[in-house]
Amino acid sequence: MKSKTLLLFSFLLIAVMQLSAQKKTVILSGIITDSKSKVAIPYANVVLKSSKDSKIFFGTVSGEDGRFTITGVNSGNFTLEVTSIGFKIKSKSVFVGSLSDYLDLGTVELEEDINTLSEVMVSSNMQKNPVTMDKKVFAVADNITQSGGSVLQSMQSLPGVTVQNGKVQLRGNDKVTILIDGKQTALTGFGNQSGLDNIPASAIEKIEIINNPSSKYDANGNAGIINIIYKKNKQDGLNGKIGISSGYGALWERKANLPTIRDQYHMTPKINPSLSLNYRKNKVNTYLQADYLYTETLNKNEFVTRTYDDGTIINQQTKRNRDTHFTTIKTGIDWNYNDKNTFSFSGLFGSEKIIDHGDEPFFNQDYSQRLRLWQFLEDELKTTVMASASYQHKFRQAGRKLNAGINYTYHQEDEKYFFDNILPASTGQDAFKLLSDEKVIDLNLDYVQPLKYGRFETGIKFRNREIPTNMQFFPGENSPIDANAGGWATYKELIPAIYGNYIYETERIEAELGLRYEYVQLKYEVNPNHPTYKSNGYNYTEPFPSVKLAYKIDDKNKFTAFYNRRVDRPNEVDIRIFPKYDDAEIIKVGNPALRPQYTSAFEVGYKTDFKKGYFLGSLYYRVVNGTITRIATTVPGSPIIYNVFQNAMESSSFGIELVFAKEITPWYSFNLNGNLYKNTIDAFTVTNLYPVPSIYSGSLQEITSGNVKWNNTFQFNKTLSGQVSMVYLAPDIIPQGKIDSRFSTDLGVKKSVQKGKGEVFINATDIFNTLVIKKEIQGEGFRYTSKDYYETQVVRFGYSYKF
């Protein structure tokens, strides 16, 4: 443990992210007029020169209305020079930053003169984009070690991201909002996240990570936002990409089954064919992205020892063999009606079929007696349909635009469980069926106004969301199922919101000030015959401000500061009143009395660029009121544990994130990303109502934790590259306990073939089979430890061809 701690602290001296992108360019606009008559001057010559050496970078002429536009301008200090026959030369200083895509230079007035303008030469210069501290963009194709896997797997090696229990965490927090192409959908969950392990990475172009979202974004997700961008080409004519990947997981048995149960999966196959098509002609661009992912997975292989205060000890195993069929099809059309008006239409279809074969044996302390064998078959089908339409109007002034859109999502969850409840003296058959239909409508209207030193943006959004659910239980002999807890429930959510952002930028100062006002009305209607829960809900009207400030010492050094206030609303599954029996004696239940948690986040940072690399560091502090967590309690006289969502008191996280990236030689570069933080959960007392009232009092919990990622990239030659990634996660606190440290190593190689049109790859994850999830939980009257030897070691290989 001491050596691990020393290793962690030594790694945290440097840390990293790797980004490769082109420098963001800016469009400048303005209007040329006569200083006396105020009449527009057409065909005036406009050039942009370097302030240092007067070298000309850009040139254009004003239109008949006197307006001019200069595109592709990089950050820096320039001199704008305007000349026209019969007028004096007009010069003005211009600073171009990186916060805005458009800058409005306003009106440039010329005075009459008899001098004329001599001929000029125009040239351009492109530079690489510096890394921004509030937004990180990663090309999925660059992640060689996770090629051929899911989006969730692809995220595991990204700087600042960790994965725990199938959920993405940013800086140790899983309250992350997932967007697809900038929108929330049922495919990944409204509120927080779901389904990422079933979206093929082959369908994704890039992943954006936003730690400090502005008020432009929805207010939920206190840890930040991850935006998944689907592939979409815009080249002329017909073009596309076809690919196929395969692989095997669970290459050998890490932990043998307890006696008398069915075999666990090993040598599990995977296959992922994909097709990307794009056709562009004149004003129309159409696209199609289709993917199919089939996997067999040892989804869970958890060994638990429960110890009760009366001396009872129960040993159990939860083994889940999972077959998954996931199909996604995304298509759309962009129609540029004219230079000012664009219409876009898109649709997405997703189908996820899951078959689980589960075994759960329960033994006494010395394994001499099997107390119960709980075997189940889960048959689940999730269907998602999304349709979107958007309209953009560009005004005469460059960068001034109006966007309007509507997005409709339908998501159905059809879940069936069939159980064999095998006891020493009897065998019973149990079952339940859950049907859930989710319908969501989002409307948005956004307006952007470029300014001389930035821009102003504002907009409104409206959401209506409804989820009726119905659960039916069919208990057999001596069943642990609570048949009375079934019935129906309906979740209704209404959210109108309005926001405004002002962005200001000069040579030294960057600022963004925003405010989002959000009203939420949530109603949760419950079957009146439910034995515990009644209809519930809440509403609020809250402001969510955001502030971003930066001071640029020079072109290579910058200080930043951030503040934002955000909210995490309980998702429908968090308040769902029905107990879930994929574990017969550790049962998860929702809580309709759950309320939102509010977070205030502060961060300061420093970034410096140097030759072929950069370093940045951030100090952050996050305080949460009404922390949402799961609390485990028992009922007197029963060994069954009930995990129920609750609002604890205040929690906080204080940490440091360090980033370092360096190209050592043309064939080798590396990056290190380290995160060290202290998590605190204040003492609290809550009452679990289900199945009967049970009080739990939690004492103060504190721990210093963190993680380190080391990514190494090798460019062996022009066509062959490789990658080795290592991740270490230190012990951390979880509700009522802690999770132990974890470590894994991934590697991959890819080669370009067929003159760059084709590509082959092979990779392997967790090559040393060291990634095991170990937990310790302390409850009132009991405690338990668990070790999950689920499938982490996977070898994949694949081929793709561009045409």
Structural commentary:
This protein has 803 residues and is an all-beta fold. 2% of the residues lie in helices and 62% in strands. It has three helices and 44 strands. The strands form seven sheets. The protein has a 22-stranded antiparallel barrel. The protein is globular and about 105 Å long. The chain starts with a helix and ends with a strand. 41% of the residues are buried. The N terminus is likely disordered.
Largest sheet: 22 strands, antiparallel, barrel
Query: What class, by secondary structure content?
Result: mainly beta
Which range does the strand content fall in?
over 45%
Q: Show unreliable segments.
A: 1-22, 114-131
Shape: globular
Helix content: under 10%
Tally of alpha and pi helices = 3
Q: Termini, distance in Å? A: 52 Å
Number of strands: 44
Mean of residue pLDDT values: 87
Helices, strands, pairings?
Elements: H1 2-11, E1 26-34, E2 45-50, E3 56-61, E4 67-73, E5 76-83, E6 90-96, E7 102-110, E8 136-139, H2 151-155, E9 161-164, E10 167-170, E11 176-180, E12 204-210, E13 224-230, E14 237-249, E15 268-281, E16 284-308, E17 313-336, E18 341-363, E19 370-394, E20 401-422, E21 427-451, E22 454-474, E23 487-505, E24 509-526, E25 536-554, E26 557-568, H3 572-575, E27 586-589, E28 597-610, E29 613-625, E30 628-634, E31 641-647, E32 651-665, E33 668-681, E34 684-688, E35 694-698, E36 701-715, E37 720-729, E38 732-734, E39 737-739, E40 742-753, E41 758-765, E42 773-779, E43 782-788, E44 794-802
Parallel strand pairs: 1-7, 11-13, 27-31
Antiparallel strand pairs: 1-4, 2-3, 2-5, 5-6, 8-12, 9-10, 12-13, 14-15, 14-44, 15-16, 16-17, 16-43, 17-18, 18-19, 19-20, 20-21, 21-22, 22-23, 23-24, 24-25, 25-26, 26-28, 28-29, 29-32, 30-31, 32-33, 33-36, 34-35, 36-37, 37-40, 38-39, 39-42, 40-41, 41-44, 42-43
